[in-house]
Amino acid sequence: EQDRFSRYRMAAAIAAACLSAFGVSAGLVIWPVLLWSGWRGKLRWPWIATIACIGGLFTAVYLYKLPLDSVSAPLSPARLLRSFDYAIRFLGLPWAHLHALVWPARFIGFAMLCLGGAALLTETFAQRPSSRLHRFGLGLVLFSFLVAGSAALARVDFAPDHEMPIRYGVFVALAQLGLLLWSLDFLERFWQGAPRLSLQWVGVAIVFVWLCQQVVAGEYAVAEADRYNGAWSRFVAGAWTPDMLHYVFPDRSRAEAGLANLRRLGLYRGP
User: Using CB atoms within 10 A of its CB, is residue 158 exposed (0-12), middle (13-18) or buried (19+)?
Assistant: First the structure.
């Protein structure tokens, strides 16, 4: 397994891990994923120590002087429960973005957490060698879980009545893809003796169900986006209604100050 790693590839992986944090701050959690993947791939200990040292130093420099008030808040039982709820709603995207589907999204997110957690534990403590496909797939799952945990600790107290931001859905898609990659070997063995035609129909049925639920989620998302757009249009026109505390900002004075600042900088030229 060791020959799957080369100095050039590892140097490129470390460089990519450093650069990822400049695209989005969630890139910071790639370092534990890189360590886990290297350990399961039988990487030599000097390389693992190098990754750990560079990752720790880079993270410390990146976070230097950044405000960490939300992360350092007391971890009371109530806050931990809210954080857990935030994490499973995070993993329930895109359905968790829709108010009417929050509870189904919780079940979906919890199922993903259980399945992904079981897969990670099984792979981590397995005695057999880890295949590259499994490492890559579960690396995506681990990355998504770490992002969900980070967001749950940092954002749980910010506008708790709002739907889960849809922009986080890209991280959940990585977890879904990772679970699919991890399960390919098992699915192939499970369906090995099945007739080819039946496998094709199973594939068609799965795709059909997946597309149908995406259409339903999309319809809800469009309706919710219309409410956001309508509230924002009325806000910039000078009106203020109670629903804007949800769809614009939970503090009217800060919302108006922010809009004035955007107009002063010439970044928004609405009415």
Answer: exposed
For residues 119 and 235, what is the distance between their CA atoms, to the nearest angstrom?
47
Per-residue pLDDT reduced to its tens digit, 42-82: 778 888 888 889 888 988 888 887 766 555 556 677 778 88
Torsion from C-alpha of 222, 225, 226, 232, nearest 10 degrees: -170
Contacts of 186 (CB under 8 A, 6+ apart): none
Cβ-contact 215, 95 below 8 angstroms: no
- Which long-range contacts does 12-21 make (Cβ < 8 Å, 24+ apart)? 14/50, 14/51, 14/54, 17/55, 17/58, 18/54, 18/58, 21/58, 21/62
- Sign of the Cα pseudo-torsion (115, 118, 122, 125, in order): positive
| pTM for this entry | 0.73
Mapping DSSP to helix (H, G, I), strand (E, B) and coil, where does residue 132 land? helix
Whether the CB-CB separation of 36 and 142 falls below 8 Å is answered with yes
Give the single-character DSSP code of 131: P
Residue 178 and residue 144 in contact, taking contact as beta carbons nearer than 8 Å: yes
The neighbour count for residue 182, using CB atoms within 10 Å, is: 25
CA distance 34 to 40: 10
Count CB neighbours of 108 within 10 A.
20
* Packed helices 30-40 and 132-155: angle between N→C axes, nearest 10 degrees: 150
Task: Say what the alpha-carbon torsion angle 114, 118, 121, 123 is, to the nearest 10 degrees.
Answer: -140
Question: Tokens standing for 3?
Answer: 């020959």
